[in-house]
Amino acid sequence: MSIKRYIQALVAVALAAAVAVSCQQKIERIPVLTLENATIGNAGGSQFLEVASDTDWSLSVEYAMGSGWIHFSQNSGPAGIMNIAITVDENTESSVRGADIILTTRGRRAVKKIKQTGSLAGSLPLWLELPSIEATEKMMIFGSYDMEGVQYKSRAQSGLRNYSFYWDVEGLVSIWVAYPLNKDLYGNGKYDYQWGPDPILQAAGVYQPDISEHSYGGKGWDDINWNRGHQMARADRQLTQASVASTCYPTNITPQQATFNGGIWGSLEGAVRTVAGKLDAKKDTLYVVTGCTQEGSEYWTSSYYQTAVQVPSAYYKALLRKQGNSYQAVGFYLPHKQSTIDDGNYMNFICSITELEARLGYKLYPNLELVPELDAAAITALKNPADPTAVFNAW
After folding, report:
1. pLDDT of 353 over the 80 cut
2. Where along the chain do its domains lie?
3. Which residues contact 319 (CB under 8 A, 6 or more apart)?
4. Average confidence (pLDDT) over 207-236
5. Are the CB atoms for 131 and 364 separated by under 8 Å?
6. What are phi and psi of 348, to 5 degrees?
7. Which of 100, 111, 250, 281 is the right S-S partner for 62, CB 3.0 to 4.6 Å?
């Protein structure tokens, strides 16, 4: 049998199979485009695009951003199943760009969406919880842990990811900690505190406060030492002793006033776990960013060895709830001051993600742009709901 007739036979088999199951389930009919990786890193690269058609076909691109950065080894061909090399140029811009790859046959067409990360995000994992990392004159360190409390390498080598952080080397606190959360991830074990130095900072050779034996020094509003305040709560990681211990690294700890830590902040942490616990842990997730701001702080404290650490002037939590193909988000911004403690109700500090981004000066959940189900209008709507309180209460 000739190669041409062999390909035609394959297409005939594919068509017959489609007809056979069409009454049982919804399937994708020929023509079909298959692309293994629809999200490309900023460095670009090549992969194969599989084309299946029962007639002559052609490929084209409709660019949503930019133009001419996608190339095919061939743009047209005869009926059959064929692998076409697709090459994506490097994206030197900071923003994500996207396009539609279109397979056109006689009267029908198939579309495959493709997105490419911007240059600033290109070196980071494409996890939904990670904020953007902007250019800065500060010395900053990004790190990520697995559930065994060591640096996350990959799903194959490290299993479940634990949390990521963005450490200010001079300020000696992480400006944010980001992590996924559901009841399978926070677990229900009973493990002990285990204070210790951060291994990633140790490997980088940078200084970190020693908080292994004491809370931070200095006086708070009620004349006691500043607490070792968790950004990701210890109760958010109760899978193993190692996962609990990782929550006690300095990268997850900041100086917090005692009644703030044990009051309104602790109540908000519990509410977040309640939301996460309602999700189907097999397919749904709450993506959490917890962070702090240092600008405007009136207080300085010290670690066990008297190293100056600025007390954050405010704390925040950003929550992105994924349930099925539905996404919703809200934020909380809590000034770290006595009036917030006196208020006591975290719901009085709820806000939209758009409002939170305006306060912080960087983007939250930039990787939403890579979710195929969401376009720019949908992302704008979920980041800026008309009533954030109603959204959160419905969770």
Report:
1. yes
2. 3-116, 140-394
3. 272, 275, 286, 287, 288, 329, 330, 331, 332, 392
4. 79
5. yes
6. -75, -5
7. 100
Torsion of CA 204, 210, 213, 217, to 10 degrees: -150
Tokens 């990520």 appear where?
144
Equal fold, 3-116 vs 140-394 = no
Question: Is 207 in a helix, a strand, or coil?
Answer: coil
Mean pLDDT (whole number) for 287-299: 89
How many angstroms separate the CA atoms of 95 and 360, rounded? 19
Please give the structure tokens belonging to residue 301: 């404290």
Q: Give the H/E segment covering residue 279.
A: none
What is the CATH superfamily name and number for domain 140-394? Extracellular Endonuclease, subunit A (3.40.570.10)
Q: Cβ contacts of residue 133 below 8 Å, gap of 6+?
A: 120, 121, 124, 140, 142, 166, 362
CATH topology (fold) of 3-116: Immunoglobulin-like (2.60.40)
Is the pLDDT assigned to residue 4 strictly greater than 60? no
In angstroms, the Cα distances linking 158 to 127, 189, 234 are 15, 20, 20
Helix axes 376-383, 353-360, angle to 10 degrees: 80
Q: How far is 369 from 376, CA to CA, in rounded Å?
A: 7
What band does 144 get if pLDDT is binned at 50, 70 and 90?
very high
